[in-house]
Amino acid sequence: xxxxxxxxxxxxxxxxxxxxxxxxxxxxxxxxxxxxxxxxxxxxxxxxxxxxxxxxxxxxxxxxxxxxxxxxxxxxxxxxxxxxxxxxxxxxxxxxxxxxxxxxxxxxxxxxxxxxxxxxxxxxxxxxxxxxxxxxxxxxxxxxxxxxxxxxxxxxxxxxxxxxxxxxxxxxxxxx
Length: 176
Description:
Distance between the termini: 32 Å
Shape: flat
CATH topology of the largest domain: Alpha-Beta Plaits
CATH class of the largest domain: Alpha Beta
CATH superfamily of the largest domain: ACT domain
Order of helices and strands: EHEEHEEHEEHE
Oligomer: single chain
Number of domains: 2
Structural class: alpha+beta
Number of helices: 4
Strand content: 35-45%
Strand order of the largest sheet: 2-3-1-4
């Protein structure tokens, strides 16, 4: 069944998810994977919906203008079953990586760059800066789900990420 990936952003307010999902229900599409968050006073969403071709065509035509009424900027991208966007296959493995370090600019890039050196695909990434305890240096927490080629040397990956963590004054945990 064909899919659409919806992204939406706009000022957060009560009832926003209700408005958007009522529109999706009226279009008779099914919500699959989704992420919604309030970031800096803004509502941010990425969502996959599925339906038949006519339902998705109708949604493509009317959802952006409906989004404007809700205060959202909405974009849509087609996704079909042949290219479902998943990087996982029989030739890959998935692991979780957690990074905790002293907060400073560049942490996400340095971790992403290190993982890219191992042909990793970042499937999910969440960050949370935290105030330090008792006036200590603020801490940055980052959690990732990463897909790697099966032939990846996990010891080399651990070494590279641990070296990075030492440079950042933090630690890395890999659950594979």
